Amino acid sequence: MVKQTKKEHRITREVKRLRKEFAERLLKLVTSGFGLVAALAWNELIKEFINIYIQPFFGKESGFVSLFIYALFVTFLAVLITYQLSKIVKSGDKED
Question: How far is CA 58 from the centre of its chain?
Fold first, then answer.
């Protein structure tokens, strides 16, 4: 009877561990999904900005120039945001 209780305890611990791992992975998946949706929304906004403000400046035949400016802008934005977020994470680590 004692062995069965230890076995049940081990199974209960394993079920709790699996639940926690499932919840953590689900959180990462949902967060990634929302991150993708946000990135796509920003992508559309930046493309519209390029179409409204940059293309008229360079003319309708400025496909390459517009794409180049778009790529530079997105790269700059990604680097800036990544840098700022890494600073926030590092400052949070120092407080712990």
Answer: 33
* 4-18 pLDDT per residue, tens: 688 888 999 999 999
Give the pLDDT band (50/70/90) at residue 22.
Answer: very high
Please name the residue ranges forming H helices in the chain.
2-49, 55-58, 63-95
Cα within 13 Å of Cα(42), Cβ side: 13
Hey, how many other C-beta atoms are within 10 angstroms of the C-beta on 69? 19
Extract the tokens encoding 28: 């990462």
Domains of the chain by residue range: 2-95
